């Protein structure tokens, strides 16, 4: 503990300060907090959670310090107080890092009347009232409000207070702004009028997405330059939400964002616990070397917005510590400084203590895996953010199948398909990367030529980066299949039949056919390729007397081949990831697992045997490896309201020992004791006696 405190002190107010900002408390003030909240309670929370960093509301929509910037609204309850400054001072006395939060998404009447250009304009030309609080106005994120007014606010905060960064929430705007200024600037760049609706097929919509991307990335650079001009060690840190970094210019992020923040604060509806770790992986998919911070809310994240409620303690801990398992820094957020319901404090403190226990092992290691799922940014850009979830079903289904198969894996963005990035992995998975440029296809083709393996499905490479359908798969030679027709669907009552004897169709004993997909592409396999599954030609699903196949199986439903370069490819020409996500059929999970195992061509580096569902994450350095085993086993794991943690029974971990190495020690980090192990045939076998929530197995080499 003293060593950790010393390291934190050593990095205070230095350019690398963020590397020891690993456990964050965020307090988002409400307007009457200056009169009602208890600062002593929050200082105690800092201590109980072992927080070494804090994010505090400073300004933007409401200032919680005596701002002198014209039209920067100051809380009417502030009086002669400065609650922001007081907590900054208290945190610094605890040797904590400090970040100031600003929220520039809304403005009050006086500012709107003085500067109507600061207000977002609706498609009908009217100023936009706030959708949830009509007494105020929605700010125009693409004009002078963010490029002239907010930089003055930022500079005032950085100049007056001892902080390390400015953090902006809801800074990206809310849809299309139809002001004359935005319309003119957009047309000057694109030649189009502003689009009237989100439509992936509309070139004006695609052009607007590109224009918005440029405006926002320019803003990141402007705000960060303003911060550094006053405090050279500090940064502007934009909230990146829960998505991958597809909406931003990567070169600007590279230069200006030393760490990245994921704002996907909890589960919503049918969302699994591994979603927390996945969010971090998606950021790491583009910037593998950057620390990633995961924000967790103490309340539910449903559309009905119970922002001052408290969710179950188990759910909070699951979300925070699934991030822990994947090496993400912990951050919890509380809206409103007044705390009428304190049931969140103990669970958050427990989760943060668990985070602090594993940090000394994980911090010096790098995430690693033999398998990567390609994050299809080029494809997802063609979908409006509010509709993107439909396109992501393919990737979510594959993600869950890999978790069930207990295969450690990382994500890799299709924006960074460099040789070095690709060659970190033995297998890459393209769940439905329908839009790929010629350059992206060539990078994958070269990876296969170097011995890499590929598992792909559905429309992968059927469109170019602009969404235009190609006459042939861009990766036809890699997939071992030529496009014939499709896609067609939704098709009901479809099946695929086992064909021949192949590892991809193992484990379906007693079955001649299994469920197929609902969207189908017909392909011709290349010479030398095998077809472990064939389509069963469509037949009716009603009347029941008509439910029988009319024809024998025909047409490739899975194409598998040896590349001749040391790798293998498997192509599934239907929507297996999407339909698995919707239906969770065990046969689809088995088919995906078989495909990946066969493509890998060897026993996985890590295998874990035992009951339950476990989310695995592997990290390593020259001295050893750390395998995080996160317990997802729960009767309610498929939906948010987890009530109770169910401890997991013993697990047997088998690890491939690197050539020339020997196991020096096996240590259970959370249990804080040694584990027994044996070595045979180049693999170390370790018994993990049980897992409460998270265990980290640390193997060190001789």
Automatic annotation (TrEMBL):
Alphabetized UniProt keyword annotations: Plasmid
Nucleus among keywords: no
The keyword Lyase appears for this protein: no
Superkingdom per UniProt: Bacteria
Pfam families: GHL6 (PF14871)
Protein name stated in the entry: Beta-galactosidase trimerization domain protein
Native organism: Neorhizobium galegae bv. orientalis str. HAMBI 540
Lineage of source species: Bacteria, Pseudomonadati, Pseudomonadota, Alphaproteobacteria, Hyphomicrobiales
């Amino acid at each position: 503990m003293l060593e950790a405190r010393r390291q934190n002190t050593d990095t205070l107010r230095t350019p690398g300060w963020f590397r020891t900002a690993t456990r964050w408390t965020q307090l988002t003030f409400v307007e009457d907090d200056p009169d009602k909240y208890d600062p002593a309670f929050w200082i105690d929370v800092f201590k109980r959670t072992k927080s070494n960093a804090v994010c505090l509301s400073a300004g933007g929509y409401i200032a919680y310090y005596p701002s002198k910037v014209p039209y920067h609204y100051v809380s009417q309850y502030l009086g002669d107080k400065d609650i922001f400054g007081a907590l900054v001072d208290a945190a610094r006395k605890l040797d904590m890092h400090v970040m100031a939060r600003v929220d520039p998404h809304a403005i009050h009447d006086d500012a709107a009347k003085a500067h109507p250009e600061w207000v977002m304009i609706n498609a009908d030309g009217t100023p936009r009232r706030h959708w949830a609080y009509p007494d105020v106005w929605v700010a125009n994120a693409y004009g002078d409000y963010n490029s002239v007014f907010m930089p003055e606010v930022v500079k005032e905060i950085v100049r007056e207070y001892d902080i390390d960064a400015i953090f902006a929430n809801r800074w990206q705007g809310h849809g299309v702004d139809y002001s004359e200024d935005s319309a003119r600037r957009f047309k000057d760049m694109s030649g189009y009028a502003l689009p009237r609706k989100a439509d992936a097929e509309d070139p004006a919509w695609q052009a607007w997405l590109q224009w918005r991307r440029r405006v926002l990335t320019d803003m990141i650079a402007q705000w960060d330059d303003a911060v550094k001009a006053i405090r050279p060690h500090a940064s502007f840190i934009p909230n990146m939400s829960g998505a991958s970094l597809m909406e931003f210019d990567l070169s600007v992020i590279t230069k200006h964002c030393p760490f990245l923040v994921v704002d996907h604060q909890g589960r919503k509806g049918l969302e699994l616990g591994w979603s927390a770790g996945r969010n971090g992986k998606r950021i790491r998919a583009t910037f593998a070397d950057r620390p990633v911070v995961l924000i967790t809310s103490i309340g539910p994240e449903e559309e009905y917005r119970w922002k001052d409620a408290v969710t179950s303690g188990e759910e909070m801990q699951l979300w925070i510590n699934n991030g822990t398992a994947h090496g993400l820094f912990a951050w919890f957020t509380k809206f409103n400084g007044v705390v009428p319901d304190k049931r969140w404090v103990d669970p958050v403190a427990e989760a943060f203590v668990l985070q602090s226990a594993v940090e000394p092992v994980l911090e010096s290691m790098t995430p690693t895996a033999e398998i990567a799922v390609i994050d299809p940014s080029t494809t997802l850009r063609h979908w409006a953010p509010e509709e993107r979830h439909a396109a992501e079903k393919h990737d979510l289904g594959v993600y869950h199948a890999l978790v069930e198969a207990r295969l450690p894996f990382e994500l890799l963005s299709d924006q960074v398909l460099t040789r070095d990035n690709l060659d970190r992995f033995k297998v890459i998975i393209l769940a439905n990367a329908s839009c790929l440029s010629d350059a992206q296809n060539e990078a994958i083709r070269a990876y296969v030529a170097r011995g890499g393996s590929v598992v792909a499905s559905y429309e992968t490479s059927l469109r170019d980066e602009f969404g235009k359908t190609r006459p042939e798969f861009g990766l036809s030679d890699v997939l071992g299949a030529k496009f014939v027709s499709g896609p067609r669907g939704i098709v009901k009552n479809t099946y695929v039949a086992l064909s021949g004897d192949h590892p991809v169709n193992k484990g379906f004993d007693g079955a001649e056919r299994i469920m197929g997909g609902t969207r189908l592409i017909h392909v011709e396999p290349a010479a030398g390729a095998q077809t472990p599954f064939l389509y069963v030609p469509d037949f009716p699903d009603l009347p029941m007397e008509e439910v029988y196949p009319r024809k024998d199986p025909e047409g490739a439903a899975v194409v598998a081949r040896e590349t001749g370069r040391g790798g293998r490819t498997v192509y599934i020409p239907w929507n297996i990831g999407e339909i698995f996500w919707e239906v969770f059929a065990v046969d689809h999970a088995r088919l995906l697992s078989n495909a990946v195992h066969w493509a890998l061509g060897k026993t996985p580096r890590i295998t874990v045997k035992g009951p339950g569902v476990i989310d695995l994450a592997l990290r390593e350095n020259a001295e050893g490896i750390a395998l995080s085993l996160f317990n997802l086993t729960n009767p309610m794991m498929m939906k948010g309201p987890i009530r109770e943690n169910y401890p997991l029974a013993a697990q047997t971990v088998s690890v491939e020992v690197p050539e020339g190495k020997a196991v020096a020690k096996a240590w259970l980090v959370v249990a804080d004791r040694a584990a027994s192990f044996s070595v045979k045939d180049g693999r170390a076998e370790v018994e993990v006696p049980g897992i409460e929530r998270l265990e980290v197995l640390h193997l060190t080499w001789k």
